[in-house]
Fold this sequence. Notes:
Helix content is 46%, strand content 20%. The protein is an alpha/beta fold. The chain is elongated, with a radius of gyration of 34 Å.
Amino acid sequence: MGWLAPEMLWAFVLLPAPIALYVWAWRSRKKSAVRYASLRILKAVQGPRPAWRVHLPAALLWLTFCLGLLALARPSAEITLPSDYRKLVIAMDVSRSMLARDVEPSRIEAAQAAVRSFIAQLPGDVRAGIVTFAGTAQVVQAVTDDREALLAAVDRFELQRATATGTGLLFSIHVLRPDLGIDLEQAIYTPSAANWPAAVAPGSDRSAAIVLLSDGRRTTGPDPIEIAQKAADLGIKVHTVGFGTEHGVIPGYEGYSFFVKVDQETLKAVAQITGGQYFYAASAEELKQAYLQLQGKLALEKKQTELSFLFIALMLSASLIAIALAQHRFAPLHRLLGRRQGSSPPG
Length: 347
């Protein structure tokens, strides 16, 4: 536990003050008790009770004083809470390079299997959508909480030529934030000319996130670094996954063989700019592990939380109990005094 206002802890030097005041008041009360004709009558009215119960209301009030001082110091603790993410877009590279078999049975089949597992284990309060990108991008499944619809969308992936990573990222932002009314056509050709809102702190939007998987480098479309900056300005985190070995090859495609290397530098930069995290996977098993780690990041977060409200609630509860006990303790005395005053002859 920590303290957001530790200087207020000096107020604890005041703790002896209410104890001294109570002791003084208790002794004064004993001296004034001689005004009654018989202390036995007063004790009979109050009934037998343990000595500690006499001081219980005062002890509770002193406890409220302690709790109040603790609340002033603003206690805090790092608590693992459910994440604030509510919407997630999975952006998948479906360029022809995903045909490479450096990952068995192929990059695309291994990626589909990992994404299916990821979707099946998403927390119940997370809704997801899917965007695919190659030479352009398309929304294959709008944001939904229907896991079956998401799994069916994964089966509809169709490989195409080229790789427009920036376009895929742009479409993902549009799916997450349709309220922005982004002109996609304008943003694809001139990202800076689109109607973007005022910038906020990177990663500050805890209601949305993007997970982007790619196995190659951009060949067309806007620069993904430029689009990542727009996502950062919206507070959206982009977690990126680089998939495939360093020497992947598409054999025999249209009579040629192509080397397909992961552009790790760009994917790392996209994640860093937006406050996300980059993962690299060179095998199907590593890709599954990357998605498992991503699931944990989307489901839980550790947050420094102020606990003053808890101490205030305890303080109010102790105060009410002390008042109730005090009322119960002196109620017989009040009734006795009322009867005595009622039976006195008029002066």
